[in-house]
Amino acid sequence: MASALVVGALCLVISACSGSGTTASGDSASIGVTTSSMFVTIENKAGLPLLDVNVSIIPVGRATEYTRFVGRLENAEKRDIALGDFNGKDGTPFSLRVVRPDGVHVVAKDMNSKSYEVQAPWAQ
User: Fold this and answer.
1) Three-state SS string across the chain, please?
2) CATH of residue 107
3) In the chain, at which end, N or C, are there fewer CB atoms within 10 A of the end residue's CB?
4) Is 105 inside a domain boundary?
């Protein structure tokens, strides 16, 4: 009986860890992040419009961050951002052929100046 409970708990933990690639806690669960081979998708779950939304792709080794300023994201809005729209500080466009991504970092604030920050691993 005890082994069945351990196996069941282990299955729940494994299924929870293999989600959509979003790692969020507390207030940061207000921004959903999903990655694919063509897009980074962000979703506003905060209940208010988000302002100054900045999305960054963090490569392995953290040599250069590739960023994209989104601006405003309305409540419950989901936006796909093409990987080619992300650029490094020197203007170099992001390419999966050249760079191996480690994760996605999203920073935003709502209309009440409450800050949100999400760090999500890159889902393969």
Assistant:
1) CHHHHHHHHHHHHHHHHCCCCCCCCHHHHHEEEEECCCEEEEEECCCCCEEEEEEEEEECCCCCCEEEEEEEECCCCEEEEEHHHCECCCCCECCCCCCCEEEEEEEEEECCCCEEEEEEECCC
2) 2.60.40
3) N
4) yes
Q: Write down the pTM of the prediction.
A: 0.76
Examine residue 86 and state whether it is found in any structural domain, yes or no.
yes
Tens-of-pLDDT digits for all 124 residues of the chain? Answer: 444 443 444 343 333 343 344 344 445 589 999 999 999 999 999 999 999 999 999 999 988 999 999 999 999 999 999 999 999 999 999 999 999 999 999 999 999 999 999 999 998 6
Tell me which residue range forms the domain holding 32: 22-121
